[in-house]
Amino acid sequence: MESSELIRLVMTIYLLFLALTLGSFINLAADRLPRGESIIRPRSHCRACQRPLNIVDLLPVAGYLIRGGRCATCRASIGIGAPLVELACGIAMLAPVLVIGPFRGAVLGLLFIAAIGVAAVSVCWRRLRA
Ligand SMILES: [Zn+2]
């Protein structure tokens, strides 16, 4: 593998990780902003039992799969929306990066993720206010 290919691979993995993490943050924002809650404090927790989430719970997509879609403590359902938003963000970044390259693809991917963020918060806002 040439060094330019290695750099491209490392950047693609990094951008995918960034996108999944942004998806996780979008879930937090979509859950809290419509309720008028802070997006900084308290740290992420289960809404049912208030247990702070640990590193396994916070892994985008994988945390949902490892926990079987439920809180590890109280078994409350997490809901399929959270991993779907994370997955959508991953795809929104990965597709342009693979098609047009890591640099221009990252810019387009971030624009797609911003659109997903606005849509997710809007949907949750309307659902709460309806
Ligand atoms: Zn819980």
Describe the structure.
It contains 5 helices and no strands. It is globular and about 50 Å long. The mean pLDDT is 95. Helix 1 runs antiparallel to helix 4 (81-100) and helix 1 (3-32) runs parallel beside helix 5 (102-129). With 130 residues, the chain is an all-alpha fold.
List its traits.
mainly alpha; 130 residues; 0% strand; single chain; binds zinc ion
Per-chain topology:
Elements: H1 3-32, H2 55-58, H3 62-66, H4 81-100, H5 102-129
The structure holds zinc ion.
Zinc ion is lined by residues 46, 48-49, 51, 71, 73-74, 76.
Give the ordered list of helices and strands. HHHHH
Strand content: under 5%
Number of continuous helical runs: 5
**Main structural class:** mainly alpha
Q: Please tell me what the overall shape is.
A: globular
Bound molecules: zinc ion
Can you give me a brief rundown of this structure?
Helices cover 67% and strands 0% of the residues. The longest helix has 30 residues, at 3-32.
